[in-house]
Amino acid sequence: MGKHSYEGEGLTIHFDPKKCIHAAECVRGNAAVFNPNNKPWVKPDAAAADEVVAVVERCPTGALTYERADGDVEAADARNTVHLAVDGPVYLRGDLHIEDASGQTHELTRAALCRCGASKNPPFCDGNHAEVDFSDPGAVGEAKTKEAPEGQTFLKARVLPKGPVLLEGPYELADGQGVGCLETGSGYLCRCGASSNKPWCDGTHSKIGFEAPGEA
After folding, report:
1. Co-location of 112 and 21 in the same domain
2. Do the beta carbons of residue 205 and residue 194 sit within 8 Å?
């Protein structure tokens, strides 16, 4: 399932269905622009460009992005944030450098990373947490973190094959209730869904033989 682009006079909207988990922020934000019952379902010119941009930036997974007619694209938030979703993924916003298991780096401003271990599009969430009944309140266990690399402003999320995600860089972590818990640097996020110290890795992935699709 490839990416789609919807071109308007003021901006072009890009949609990556593999990252969409139907959070529906776009539909709630402006149903005239984003309506799954229409063909095409995205109509960039149905509202002012600034209004459309504001709605696109609400998409928590980064499935929706935009490019203005003058070439401008979304700027990263000034502060990197990591938010644990109740029974769902971990949402990242900011200046993100996500390195997948193959070593490819994706420079993004918004992303949802799988933490149930069942995504078929790792490391990104694809909504399968609902299919496998992943349950987690988004509480923050005992942190085992280190300071961020000196002078680094971006947040790097490096996927360790068959293992956790190593976060390196400055960020603010919020629990499932949206309460800021700590500001920290480097830490290992559980990706298999089985850690007893979520969101942090406790090594359980090795015991259960965790292996994400395409990472054998």
Report:
1. no
2. yes
Reading the block at residue 11, the tokens are: 């901006």
**CATH number of the domain encompassing residue 47:** 3.30.70.20
User: Same domain, yes or no, for 15 and 117?
Assistant: no
Omega before 170 within 30 of 0, i.e. cis? no
The string of pLDDT tens digits covering residues 80-91 is 999 999 999 999
Which structure tokens are listed for 60? Answer: 């928590």
The whole-angstrom distance between residue 131's C-alpha and the CA centroid of its chain comes to 19
- The span from the CA of 50 to the CA of 154, in Å, is 26
Please, are residues 66 and 74 in contact by the beta-carbon 8 Å criterion? Answer: yes
Long-range contact set of residues 135-138: C-beta below 8 Å, sequence gap at least 24: 135/87, 136/84, 136/86, 136/87, 136/176, 136/193, 136/198, 137/86, 137/87, 137/176, 138/84, 138/85, 138/86, 138/175, 138/176, 138/177, 138/199
Higher model confidence: residue 179 or residue 48? 48
Nearest in space to 139 (alpha carbons), one of 112, 167, 189, 177: 177
As a whole number of angstroms, the distance between CA 138 and CA 82 comes to 11
At 95, which amino acid appears?
A: D
Mean pLDDT for 8-21 is 96
pTM for this entry: 0.94
Its domain, for residue 183, covers: 81-208
